[in-house]
Amino acid sequence: MTTSLYRLDDFDALDDEAFRALARAFLKEHYPQDLRNPPKRLHWDEIRCWYMTLSAHGWLAPGWPRTHGGMGLSAAKQLIYMEEFEQFGAARMPDHGIMLLGPLLIRYGSTAQQQEFLPKIISGEHIWCQGYSEPNAGSDLANVQTRAVLDGEHWVVNGQKIWTTLAQDADWIFMLVRTDPAARKQEGISFLLVPMNSPGVTVRPILNLEMQDEFCEVFFDDVRVPRENLVGEINKGWSMAKALLGFERIFLGSPRQSANALERLKVLAQHVGCWTEPVFRDRYARLALDLADHKALYEHFADILRAGGQLGPDISFLKLHQGELYQRITELMLEIGGEAAAGLEPINGNRDLNPAGQFLAARASTIYGGASEVQRNILAKNVLGLPG
Amino acid sequence: MTITAERLEGARMIRESAAGIADRGDVGRTRKLRFSETGFDRQILKEMCDLGWLGLRLPESDGGSGLGMVEMCALAEELGAAIVPEPLIPAALAVRVLAEPERTAALEGRLVVLPAFQEQAADPDAAPATSVQQGRISGRKLFVPSPRGADAFVVTSREGSFLVRSDAPGLVIEAVTMQDGSHSGTLVFNDAPAEKLPGRLEDGLDDACLATAAYLLGLADAVLERTVAYLKVRKQFGAVIGTFQALQHRCVDLKLQAVLARVSVEDAARIADTNVGIDERRAAVSRAKARASDAALLVARQAVQLHGGIGFTDECDIGLYLRKAMVLAPAFGGSAFHRARFAALTFGDSAEASPAPARTA
Prior knowledge:
Low-confidence stretches of chain A: none
Radius of gyration of chain B: 20 Å
Shape of chain A: globular
Number of strands of chain B: 10
CATH architecture of the largest domain in chain B: Up-down Bundle
CATH topology of the largest domain in chain A: Butyryl-CoA Dehydrogenase, subunit A, domain 3
Number of helices of chain B: 11
CATH topology of the largest domain in chain B: Butyryl-CoA Dehydrogenase, subunit A, domain 3
CATH class of the largest domain in chain A: Mainly Alpha
Order of helices and strands of chain A: HHHHHEEEEEEEEHHHHHH
Mean pLDDT of chain B: 95
Helix content of chain B: 40-55%
CATH class of the largest domain in chain B: Mainly Alpha
Oligomer: heterodimer
Strand content of chain A: 5-15%
Structural class of chain A: alpha+beta
Number of strands of chain A: 8
Mean pLDDT of chain A: 94
CATH superfamily of the largest domain in chain B: Butyryl-CoA Dehydrogenase, subunit A, domain 3
Radius of gyration of chain A: 22 Å
Strand order of the largest sheet of chain A: 1-4-5-8
Order of helices and strands of chain B: HHHHHHEEEEEEEEHEEHHHH
Low-confidence stretches of chain B: 351-361
Helix content of chain A: 40-55%
Largest sheet of chain B: 4 strands, mixed
Largest sheet of chain A: 4 strands, mixed
Shape of chain B: globular
Number of domains of chain A: 3
Number of helices of chain A: 11
Distance between the termini of chain B: 31 Å
């Protein structure tokens, strides 16, 4: 274990502003300068150094309890951690093990599973990917068709996952599999841990609209997995995975993405010469006001978490508005960018003048994490109380 | 910058006390007062005064309650949810600059004093050309709310704010009827006698603007609430129309705008009650008014659509909300004005491209 100025026994002994200052200092001292605000999702070989730095200083898992190697931060400090990392332009890591699997194992896993897997997430030995979506289970996620059948002491897995982020970099996958085809949709699903190097696992990267390969298809052909790799109760995987979708839902609505895009819209407007033009000005002002009110909405939900409360179904408003605002900003970029905006590379090779890249990147924001249409369904039923 | 639990509790109690006068479930009183002589009920305005609402923002030493914009917005929101016709927000603006004995008379509801400050359409901030010489005022004021119900006006001028009685010689009041059944006045002063007041009416304009935003927020929430309730009972094609996804998604989009209006108004109220620079305060007020004006108009006109044919009739109450939104969305500056003011205050450069937010003494 490295001795570190930043490794504290009790982060919650600091007041929030002191913790914020500590996070800022930590990033300034340790974050690799050339990886700030990367224009794409980084692969493991590019971001490994930062993962290991966080690990060495005990800063990798803000939400995990200290007994499992986490920072044990309060909700308020977890928000500060996220805000400061975003503000600094720290790249997103392959964090599915930290953000999703860890909390799930801590809550539902056996002691043996916790002892086996949690330390290896913290050490960087295991990088995890998430196997939830399938070709016919996207917005309708409960329609999982990948089967796992018990054969002696092994589960035999057959099927296909898709949109699996950075599967090509992962050592393990945690996945939803159907273990009872006869049960009602949500009730026959289990939660299984599978090594990516198992015979019968095939990974095929997908080139997305940004010409990046961060998503993959993962195929399972008679993949044999030890029986003890099933987490929690059999056929309870759906409710376990869903119960974990609490706190994290605020992250999908963070104003940072739109705030960065709005700054780049200004840079682009200055470059093309329309920054002081009144019609552009009014359209920019609309977006700036939308962003300001979005920040207020984010703070409204953050206040609930800081006070120890739970997020309700209305958190979907935040995700919905963030995705669509981000898109509108980038649509105006494309419009004012004119002919040059359709280039494959940023204008003049300047990363801040990249209307096409931003426009295309924003297409995903209304699809991932529950498409906007699904968010509207949820809000209509659970917030407005509309029937059906 | 958080508001204490004690103040939130106070705001909640104000909301509760408002329910007695402002019944969001029954807008029959509002309907009856449309197109009447003054457009509002003076007795109800007096009851509002008795509840301390007129002097909510006045210091206790001046006979008020010494409360902030958090409380004022809570009250205004309840008034908007019931679309009450009494001009409490303009009257609360005027009372802040009155001197005795008029201040006490106004606070007790015996004297109705309303503000007259605007001289240019769509620009409530423009400096006045109205002038006063030797106690006589001359000039022209536009868009004075409910002028037929006023006993006196607080009038802005190059020389400061003045009190002018509504029966003063040299004052001509031309009132036009507005869509919501109230009146809007053009006041022409021709050497009318005027008494100098100690304060500047302009200093309270942002508070009145923010309170109007809160009123529009309450209006938007209430008309959406009614519309969603209607969608849960109205049947067509053998189904409750609220089960149709196209209508569900539209309602969600309307609610999103109402939610944004709420956080915007609440944020602005908090900022207004904090010691911040004047520009930050004004930018927050502009943000809230731009959002609330657009949200109220959007929700109210979509409410007509979602009600179908009945929504297009005058007997349906939905029209009352729409017409009130039409009148108040531009009051104290509409969304275009406030977007431009927000831009000029926050973008920091190229002020020549935006209307200058001149508010000079």
